[in-house]
Amino acid sequence: MRRTIPHTTVALAALTLVLAGCGSQADSGKGGDSGTVSSSPTTTPTGCTPASTLDVHDSGRTVCLAVGETLRINLDGTAKRPWKPVSGSGSVLEATNAGIVLLPGDANAAFKAVKDGRTRLQSTRPLCAAQPGRVSCLGIQEWWVAVVVK
């Protein structure tokens, strides 16, 4: 007598293995594996994360600031995969001096919270390094955070 495993059991096992592999390593922003895993910050009951400095690992988060606080953003890129300058819209945040960008491809920014409200900060960079004379992907890596000022 031949034993068979139901298709749903096989599909669930495969899905479990795939999900276990997703997100197990953090992107260093340099295009290679860093081998480190970022820890999750504490969130408030409103879903906000208090923060003063953000990096590539904070993409997709909602952060909270009080009026007068400054938020710094440091996105590490490479010359072949550079981050575009961090941009936002509205009048909730005001760009302030972020210092000097020392490495090609990095995007550093600082914003001061000037009034209550909500906005989104974002940047993008090529997913693959451009290599002249070679086939390359046209994908884009997006970085963004929602900012709530109270």
Layout of secondary structure:
Layout: H1 7-21, E1 49-50, E2 53-54, E3 62-65, E4 70-75, E5 87-88, E6 93-96, E7 107-113, E8 117-126, E9 140-149
Parallel strand pairs: 1-3, 2-4, 3-9
Antiparallel strand pairs: 4-7, 5-8, 6-7, 8-9
Name the helicity range.
10-25%
Structural class: mainly beta
In the predicted model, the low-confidence regions spanning at least 5 consecutive residues are 9-40
Number of helices: 1
N-to-C CA distance = 69 Å
Question: Can I get a quick summary?
Answer:
The protein is 10% helix and 31% strand. With 150 residues, the chain is mostly beta strands. The strands form two sheets. A five-stranded mixed sheet has the order 1-3-9-8-5, with no helix packed on it. A four-stranded mixed sheet has the order 2-4-7-6, with no helix packed on it.
Question: How would you explain this protein's 3D organization?
Answer:
- The protein is mainly beta and 150 residues long.
- The protein is built from one helix and nine strands.
- The protein has a five-stranded mixed sheet, with no helix packed on it. A four-stranded mixed sheet has the order 2-4-7-6, with no helix packed on it.
- It is elongated and about 50 Å long.
- About 21% of the residues have low confidence.
